[in-house]
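Input/output pair, single chain:
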Amino acid sequence: MPDISEELLNDILSIMASSMLAVSTFSLSIMVSAFSSASNGATPRATELVMGDNTTRLAISSFISAFVYAVIAKITLGMGYYNEAGRFVLFVGTICVLIYLITTLITWVSALSQLGLLNNTLEKIEVASQQALINYWQYPNMGAKSLDKIRFTYAIHAHKTGYLSHINMQNLQDFADKNECEIEIAIQPGKLVHTNMPLAYVNKSIEEMAQLQENFIIENNRSYAQDPKFGLIVLSEVAQRALSQAVNDPGTAIKVISVLLRLLLDSKAEKQTVKYDRLAMLNLNEQELVLQPFTPICRDGSAMLEIHIKVQKALAVLRTQSDNQAIREAVLKQAKIDLDYALNGLSLENEKAQIQALHQDLFH
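Output:
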């Protein structure tokens, strides 16, 4: 076994401690800049997705952990804690840590080149939106039975004001099984609720019914996981900012329209059977999946012919390719809304005539 001197180990650990402290500080500053860039360049609603980047978290936690490791190792080494065999083990461990850090640093440098850029932020929003839409198409009522109208009278009320971000369906099912009752859920995640607003109804009075409030998570902000519309709305916000006079970037808005089209067409999943037979949930108005993201883009791009052309063509594709009746009906409404914005916003008569002719060709 080679005799590793304390001086050699101390030098290696000193280099590691000082460099990891510097890299950690630098990485944190870059991360804060990326968050600011995502907020200012895209929309503040996208910041949480940039913050949740696993590569970023892993890299920074690795650098900080390596710094702590080096400091503790230097302290124990200075206390004379290690004999010859111990120093060799510490040396091997330190070399392994260094190899891991080099690999992590290379990955981190690659991630840094994209972190906070608009294209990268759009990709993160698209991925989150796609997963939420796939979950929705699999379980349109989150695994509960479909419901058109509330029938029960014993209400479960919201305990505070905010956005309904999550519903614990399994706990509600377990409660209903235990008490031999049925529950009708009046709203889906993403809705703004207020104190004492009815969230669900039970078919009979139960003493422990107040406990059901805990299964409806109300937060200050909307989240992507159980809300299929939120990601589409966030994408629309990116396009709205791009169309503002301060930014004046119709190219980004056109790209967002393409992303919206891709999400509404390709985020498909086979509808699954009911998972929670004692729960029912009011159906989502699926027309809002089209109307809510597209209408603001049509409004803010009312003076730009290229925006209207892209919207009309995207909606025409949705009309012919979507197998969802509600979406096809919403497309017809949205195409007419866009045409109205175009006729009101475009200044040249030949541009108005061009968009009218395109609309007539695509939808009549």
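Residues 6-41 form the longest helix (36 residues). Residues 285-364 form one domain.
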